[in-house]
Amino acid sequence: MNLSKILKNGFMVLAACLVLTACAVQKKSTGQMQGDVYTGKDSVEYLASGVPDRVFFATNETVLTTASRDTLRKQAAWLRKNSKVNVVLEGHADERGTREYNLALGERRANSAKDYLMTYGISSSRISVLSYGKERPVDSGSNPLAWSKNRRSVTVKAN
Amino acid sequence: MILRYLTILLILLPIKVFAVIEVDITRGNLNPLPIAVSPLSIDEESRKSFKKVLNKENIGSEISIVVENNLKQSGLFNPLNKDAFLQNPDIANLKPRFEDWNLIKAQVLITGKVSFVDENLRVEFRLWDVLAGKEMKALAFTTVPSNWRRVGHIITDKVYETLTGEKGYFDTRIIYVAEEGPKTKRIKKLAIMDQDGFNNKFLTLGNELVLTPRFNPTNQMVTYLSYFRNLPRVYLLDIETGLQEVVGDFPGMTFAPRFSPDGKKIIMSFAEGGNSDIYTMDLENRIVERITNHPSIDTSPSYSPDGKYICFNSDRSGYQQIYIMKSNGKNVKRISFGNGLYGTPVWSPRGDLIAFTKLHKGKFYIGVMRTDGTGERLLTENYYQEAPSWSPNGRVLIFYRETKTDSKGEGFSAKLWSIDLTGYNERLVETETDASDPSWSSLLSN
């Protein structure tokens, strides 16, 4: 094989890589997922009518999506009206990570939800945080959709 | 080509010239050493006495089976079929007829004798070099009859040590998490068993979630994470007395505990306000010390065997990577630079390597690298596996592996596996229930 051939093949591989990355980065909406964040209703419960109990996260991420912030504002409004209710924010990760790192990740996810509730006027004394890491999946599937449902922070009434 | 011949010659030379049997454990062993484990001989009276106490027909044979299984599992030895043995165990123990053992291609022979002495089990065993026709090792000891499996493990350790030049890992235990029930509602209990899977015992009832038990390298204490009263905290458990206590008084989750090599400290993560950092607590004076202070996740700390350094997992670069630092938290240095994410670093008891879990392109690997991050070697690839723990001699890793579920979300299982540092000899470690988070004890006897 001469040098120019090697170079040509190299470029083709490189080009193929670029195409692949482009596909991976592009956010696909599959109906139940935006990118890899779950947007469906399956497994979602309600604190009150119109107040979903959970928000979902992208892989390895702890930032809140627009939809998550919307859900948390609804929760905050409901909590302001029901001032005697305390909540536990349960943070979870999917099964595709090491156990210990996932415990930390779950804690971080629950805290990003907690921080957002606090900016909408909910006292930190009413919110506690509990990370389950990957220990309590809601969906036992081994596929991207199942994992997206499991990457979540769930607001649970504590009293 | 010349170089290759030279290496082969070098390996062959000692055996040919000095007729000394050496098992090289630094390479994958594709030709396990043929070894004959003659059943330990027993006189009729002793046999009856042990039958009464232990309900075993012939305890001499039982012990030799323990030895044989250990040797086989190690991947370094090939125990020969007993049907081919020509010499009776009692005679063989006095004076083996080496021609007979040579005939069945045994290079090494183990013989021995058990007797019932003052309610105790007295064992003597001998290790013979068949080719040279001489005794390599002889040892006798006495213990309570119920310890008979341990006798088999101790004999194996002595054989391993004589033939490889390194300490064995057979008279050890594994603490792990026993798992039952559906994936979404797993019930988890602490459990302990002998290294070969026998004498399994559950240490907790399964009322609360328990994770990541780890042995104290100097004794039989254990540290682990328990969700008792829904407060995830690091606990200390004395497995002899069953007494347990919370480690420290932290206002949030503590997790990822391990002992320092001298057993006097626990190192762990403490999570507060979305940030996990590494702390230690001295078990004598209860002083808590903060080791890392960084807005990223710092977890899975593990000390070097001399206690001077700590390796840990951090996402301060944006993703999970492995770092090392001095034990006071200074001189933090990233050491993993390959493609993918790295987690669960654990320092080898020999000090030279760090074992880890790696996630790359949707696959999980168990691997090792030198402590400066060079020489990365991936030992095994699978759908999901993590949490390697070293055998006390630093030659074998035990870890757990989970299966992918089917389209209905069924078929989940978690099992313990072991693999040699060479990447050969991968084996399922059988457990009564599903199992995860294994931790290997140090040698019970020395």
Sum this structure up briefly:
By secondary structure, chain A is an alpha+beta fold.
Describe this structure in words.
The complex is a heterodimer of chains A (about 160) and B (about 450). Chain A has about 160 residues and is α+β, with helices and mostly antiparallel strands. Chain A has a single domain, classed as OmpA-like domain (60s Ribosomal Protein L30, Chain: A, 2-Layer Sandwich), CATH 3.30.1330. Chain A is built from 4 helices and 8 strands. Chain A has helices at about 5-25, 65-80, 100-120, 145-150, and strands spanning about 35, 35-40, 45-50, 50, 55, 85-90, 125-135, 150-155. Chain A has a 4-stranded mixed β-sheet. In chain A, strands 1-2 form a two-stranded antiparallel ribbon. Chain A is globular, with a radius of gyration of 20 Å. With about 450 residues, chain B is an alpha+beta fold. In chain B, helix 3 packs across helix 6. The longest helix of chain B is centred in the first third of the chain and has 17 residues, at about 1-20. The interface of A and B includes residues 105, 111 and 130 of A.
Q: How many strands appear in the DSSP assignment of chain A?
A: 8
- Can you give the helix content of chain B as a percent range? 10-25%
State the end-to-end distance of chain B. Answer: 44 Å
Can you count the helices of chain B? 6
CATH evolutionary superfamily of the domain at 2-164 in chain B: TolB, N-terminal domain
- Helix coverage percent of chain A: 40-55%
CATH architecture of the domain at 2-164 in chain B: 3-Layer(aba) Sandwich
Computed structural class of chain A: alpha+beta
What structural class should be given to the helix and strand makeup of chain B?
A: alpha+beta
Radius of gyration of chain A: 20 Å
Shape of chain B: globular
Chain pair sharing the greatest interface: A-B, 31 and 46 residues
The largest pleated sheet of chain A is described as: 4 strands, mixed
Major beta sheet, strand line-up of chain A = 5-8-6-7
What global shape of chain A is seen? globular
The fraction of residues assigned to DSSP E strands of chain B is: 35-45%
Largest β sheet strand count, sense and barrel closure of chain B: 6 strands, mixed
Radius of gyration of chain B: 24 Å
